[in-house]
Amino acid sequence: MSESNRNTANDDNNSINNTDFDRPRRNKRNAVGHLPYELLKFVKNESYSLLIKGKPGTGKTTFALTLLDNLNDDSNYFYISTRLSLKQLLFYYPWVEKFFSKDQNKSGYRFEDARLDEPESLFERITNQLMDVKSPVIIIDTWDTIASFMDRESRLNNERVLQIWRERAGAKLIFLSETFDLGILDSIVDGVITLDNIIFESTNNRKLTINKLRGLPIKCSNYSYSLYNGVFYTSDLIKDLNLFSAFEKIKPFYERSKLIVSKPSNKSKSKMLDDFDVKELFIENNFISIFVKNDINNELLISLLLKPLCFWMNKTNNKMMLNNFGPDFKYLCERILSYHLSAEKVKDKLLKQEIDFAGSSGILRDRYEKEELHGGDNRINLEKLKHTIKLSSETSTNSKQYDSIPLQDETNILNILNASDLLSLINDESFLNLLEDSFATNVIIVKHPETNLNLHFLEKGIHFKMNLVGKNILIQLVNNDIILFETIIDRSRLFVEWRPVL
Question: Are residues 404 and 434 in contact, defined by beta-carbon separation less than 8 angstroms?
Answer without folding.
Answer: yes
